[in-house]
Design goal:
CATH class of the largest domain: Alpha Beta
Number of helices: 10
Order of helices and strands: EEHEEHEEHEEHHEHEHHHH
Largest sheet: 6 strands, mixed
Strand content: 15-25%
Structural class: alpha/beta
């Protein structure tokens, strides 16, 4: 891969977009390589993933705008669908994906972060959906995920003004989970990832499934889904290990089985 780096430390994989000369912009090739990287870290030994951008300036500064003038409407739709496919793949990933927002997360970069299961931002981060400034709108899912995360009114303000916000405001509106000093960003994400890695992998995966699918259902349907997935955990060896460890007052050793 030309623009994506994978670093593995125990049960945690770090996927880094490394296209610094273009502020880690999301070209079609970068989107394809990110999808490939997710496939490579979807192994039994990896239990959590951190996604970030190389350097200190950008997580991902959006799509590669210089390609836009040559797009036909059909090519634009194909590009949007490619970005949406990656976003859906991240969202449906069976291991938690943490976005370490180390700088600009604008346009497609913001949408990439929105698809992750949680977001930690550096104090220097700038986040927004500036597409309307270019005469276009979001294409990778921002018009759908942003209002689901921060509410319709706040999302519409950000989507229609194109205003970028700092990490402090992103935390206030619930766009990010936490804010860290730039040098502490990856360690903070690593700490969360390691906490997750200690838990039963199937229980974590089923929790992700329950939340992702349940949000698209009525409360009653979501509760039924939760009960079915709860029952599935009782077919696992990890459930036996977890409950036995609790009764024996020791730390469980989960195997993912």
């Amino acid at each position: 891969m030309d623009f994506i780096k994978i670093d593995i430390s125990g049960p945690v994989a770090v996927i880094t977009i490394d296209r610094r000369d273009a502020l880690n912009a999301l070209s079609p090739q970068v989107l394809d390589e990110l999808s490939q990287a997710l496939d490579e870290v979807n192994t039994e030994g990896i239990r959590a993933v951190i996604m970030t951008g190389a350097g200190k300036k950008a997580f991902a500064a959006g799509a590669d705008i210089k390609e836009f003038p040559s797009f036909t409407p059909l090519q634009a739709q194909d590009f949007a669908l490619k970005g949406q496919a990656l976003s859906k793949k991240i969202e449906a990933f069976p291991k938690p994906v943490i976005a370490a927002i180390n700088g600009f997360a604008l346009g497609g970069g913001c949408e990439l972060a929105l698809a992750c299961h949680m977001r930690i931002a550096a104090e220097t981060a700038k986040i927004g959906q500036p597409e309307v400034n270019l005469g276009v709108m979001t294409g990778f899912g921002g018009s759908q995920r942003l209002p689901r995360l921060v509410g319709k009114g706040v999302a519409l303000e950000l989507l229609t003004t194109g205003r970028a916000i700092d990490a402090k405001e992103a935390l206030r509106i619930g766009l990010v989970n936490a804010v860290a000093a730039p040098d502490e960003l990856l360690p903070a994400c690593q700490e969360i990832a390691e906490q997750i890695a200690e838990k039963a992998p199937q229980a974590v995966a089923l929790t992700l499934e329950a939340v992702n699918h349940g949000l698209e259902m009525s409360l009653e349907e979501g509760l039924n889904l939760e009960a079915r997935l709860f029952a599935l955990t009782f077919t696992t060896e990890d459930m036996q290990e977890g409950t036995q460890a609790f009764l024996e007052k020791r730390k469980p050793k989960f195997t993912g089985k």
